[in-house]
Specification:
homodimer, about 290 residues, mainly alpha, Farnesyl Diphosphate Synthase, two-stranded antiparallel ribbon, about 0% strand
């Protein structure tokens, strides 16, 4: 008896999509051997080799859920990855988290110096918008405006950058309560995940109801992502401000389970096309890395 | 005998346009009294009060040279100003120029701390793209793509950010020659000036020849701007690497004069509509601040 070949294999799916994202990023930010300074090299250092490419894969899967070829969302997907990479470079700087290592390698500024590290982050954030504009030629002016706005709102002061500042302010004040923690995470990490899902849907031609459903999905898995991240970190550092520290482990797990259920419910009308999105949501709940 | 009222008054023109830019920027980045953290306040700190708003005024005047109402270029003009403000905030950081004062006030990071200063710069650079998308509704998808690309190419690693890294590398190496200095300045300050002029022309509906002429104008006045800046600084710091230090004062002045002549020549077919652009070029040659 052979296994049913129609069973969706998330592991293979994620690996294949991450490879496609890597190849596209290589095309969007190629090495520049004639460059006078190390800027392109420094930018590429924090893009390659990549991790799971979670945000771009979400954008691609969201486009797919609309019954649209996922490749159509590749440019905007890579734009979100570049924003993510930029945020890691600046987060690691001495005036922020002052980290010497990331993914087992020296951080950008440890290799290239603080000045070039700062500028490499700046370059990545700006280049995200240039890459977003490599989206398919047949997209309307209105869709292009939406994509740029989503990218800016998710990454700028109304989203990620603003969340980081609220986080810093709360840390300086010394107390963070449950509602504040939710607000910080919704902006700091949730906005980019939500935005990636929304942009995949927009490229895929989502109507208002479809966009609302995929937005809900994006918000819920952003929450799940953060809670499970906090749970994994909690085992190493129980003192850090986190979901398990503020709500307890059991309550945190229950919140994550409920969020996944809501995410799956939002996907129902999309049927089989949303299989990757639903498998991703379920996977997030049980991930161990 | 009264003076001819048709004489173009550059001083009034510059003051009026700068006021219009200030008002538009106020609308694009309003104060947010309900903000949880100081991010919007920190961003606004480095946008208001502004200086001469040189780059946005150029974009508006370039649109005007096309016979198009200057207001149509207001959003993209303000986007260039936000990029300029972002670059000043990051330039002042301790890991860059480590400046405590700018325009007679403490620098952003001296007021808000290095972490918030860094993030305020990030926020300004990202918001530039959101503001660019507030350009008139009737612009085509192709024009929107061009505007975003121009903004990204002028400000990112192919332009300003890349020029800063080449500058750092040259400073570390300890020697800069004439051709290198030109290359550094063309990228570091020239790209943004050139891009602002080009974007005003693009919004104004420039054809290929008109765009090429206004691009040449933008490149030449970018050079004039830098040379006269260097001449002004040279009187205070004759040791710094600069046009007068490398080429001598007389040769630098001759280069600036020739660049203005070329800029004016490029404007000829635009007639009276280009009066602000030509007055600006001539003014740059004789400015004392």
């Amino acid at each position: 008896m052979s296994q049913a070949t129609t069973t969706f294999n998330l592991k293979d799916y994620l690996r294949q999509r991450a490879q496609e994202v890597d190849a596209a990023l290589e095309g969007f930010l190629p090495a520049d051997p004639n460059s006078l300074g190390p800027i392109v090299e420094a930018m590429r250092y924090s893009v390659f080799p990549g991790g799971k490419r979670f945000r771009p894969v979400l954008a691609l899967a969201s486009c797919e859920a609309m019954g649209c070829p996922h490749q159509r969302a590749m440019a905007i997907a890579c734009a979100f990855e570049l924003i993510h990479c930029f945020s890691l470079v600046h987060d690691d700087l001495p005036c922020m988290d002052n980290d010497d290592e990331r993914r087992g390698r020296p951080t950008n500024h440890k290799v290239y110096g603080e000045d070039v590290g700062l500028l490499a982050g700046d370059g990545l954030s700006i280049w995200a918008f240039q890459v977003a504009m490599q989206s398919p030629d047949d997209l309307s002016a209105s869709v292009l405006r939406q994509l740029i706005s989503e990218l800016a709102l998710a990454s700028g002061h109304p989203g990620m950058v603003g969340g980081q500042v609220i986080d810093l302010a709360a840390q300086h004040a010394g107390t963070i309560d449950g509602p504040q923690l939710k607000k910080i995470h919704a902006a700091k990490t949730g906005a980019l995940i939500r935005g990636a899902v929304r942009c995949g849907a927009i490229v895929g031609g989502a109507n208002a109801e479809q966009l609302a459903r995929l937005t809900l999905y994006g918000e819920r898995i952003g929450l799940v992502f953060q809670i499970t991240d906090d749970i994994l970190d909690h085992l190493e550092d129980p003192e850090a401000v986190s979901y398990p520290a503020l709500f307890g482990l059991d309550e945190s797990r229950a919140m994550a389970s409920q969020a996944v259920e809501e995410a799956l419910l939002a996907l129902q009308p999309f049927g089989a096309a949303a299989e990757p999105l639903s498998a991703l949501a379920t996977y997030l709940l049980t991930r161990t890395t």
